C-alpha cells in the first residue's frame, strides 16, 4: 500500500472514530444529566443488547472479510456479492421476525418488550450494513467507510440532542433516533455499493453453498470476537438480572466513560488489516514492536487523567457519583483492550490464527462465567464482579500476545510484565487513595516507565525528523 494512501485512509478513519469518541463523550455528559436514572438505564439496556446484534450473521460477513482481504473493489465478482448480500438480508428478516414474535408472546415488562422489539429491528438494519462496511474495509475503501460511519454518528447525536432540547425525556424516542441513523446509513451504503445491491441473482443454490462456506470460514473469528465482548457482557447482564435496571444503568455509565478511548483506537485497526495483507511477513515484527511501544506509552499515560475525570464527572452527575468510583477498576481495561483490538487481534487475523484466538477467548469466557456466578449470585458483591474484569482482560491479552510472539518468533515478556505492574499499581493506588496523591504516585511510576523506554522514544523522534526533512 502506498504511504500517501495509507496516511489518507488513516486520517479519515481517525477523524470518523475521533468524532464518534466526541459524540459518545457528549452523550455521556448530557443524556444521564437530563434523563431520569430509570429512563437512562433502559436506553443503556437497548444499547447493550444492540451491541450484540452484529453477531447474528454467524460469521457470514467475517468470512467475506477474511476471504477477500487485500482485494481491490473493482476485482470483485459483483454477482457473487449480490447473492450473498440478499441471502443474508432475507435470513436476518426471518430471524428478527421470529425473535419479535417470541418477545410479544413471552415478555411481561412493557419497557423491556419495547427494548427487545427495537433490537429486532436493529438486527435487520445493522447486519446488511455490516456486510457492506466489511466489504469497503477489506477492499481498502476506507475513505468511503469512514465517511458513512461519521455521518451515522453525527445524525444520531444531532437527533438525540435535538430531542433533549425539545423536552423529550423518553428512552423510546432516543432508541428511535438510533434506529433512524442506522437505517439512513444503510441506504447511503447501498448507494455506495449499488453495483452489488442492485442486480439479479441467477444461482440461488450456488449462493447458499457460498454462504455456508463464508460462515464456516468466518464463524471462528466471529466466535472469538463475541467471546471478547462477552467478558464485559456477562458481568453487565448478571448485574441487570441480579440487582436492577437502575444499578445496571449506573454501572453502564462508568463502563462507557472508561471505554471512550477504545472507539478511537479501533480507527487504526481498520487500516492495519488490509495493510498487513499486502505486506511481506518479514516486516511484521518490526512494525508490531514500533506500534506497540507507541500505543503503550500513550495509553498508560492517559491513565493519569482518571482522578481529574472522576472529580469532574461526580460534580456534573451527582446521581452517579458513587458508581463512578468503579472507574478506578475499569480504566486499566483500555491498556489491554486497546492492544488486543489494535494489534494482537489484527495480526492474528492476518496470520489466519482465528481458531487459536477463539480458544483463548472462550477459555476467558468460561472463567468469567464461573467468577461472575460466584461474585454476583453467591457473594452478592458488585465490587468484586467489576474488579475481576481488568484482571481477566489482562490475562487474555497476555496469552494472546504470547501466541503472537511464538508465531512470529520474538519475545516481549519484559514489556508485558511492566505494563501489568503499571496497570495493577494504578488500580491499587486509585482505589485505596481517593485524592490527588494517587495521581502523583502513579505519575512517578509512569515516569520510570518512560525513562526505561527512552531509547525507543529517541529513535522514533529522530525517525520523524528525518521523514519531515526528506519531504
Automatic annotation (TrEMBL):
Keyword tRNA processing present in the record's keywords: the answer is no
What kind of membrane protein is this, topologically?
Answer: Multi-pass membrane protein
InterPro entries recorded: Poly_Biosynth_Transport
Q: Which UniProt keywords apply?
A: Cell membrane, Membrane, Transmembrane, Transmembrane helix
Q: What is its main location?
A: membrane
Its domain of life reads: Bacteria
Record-annotated membrane-spanning stretches: 12-31, 43-65, 85-107, 114-136, 156-181, 217-239, 251-273, 294-317, 329-348, 360-379, 435-452
Q: What name does this protein carry?
A: Polysaccharide biosynthesis protein
Tell me which GO cellular component terms the UniProt record holds.
Answer: plasma membrane
Where does this protein reside within or beyond the cell? Answer: Cell membrane
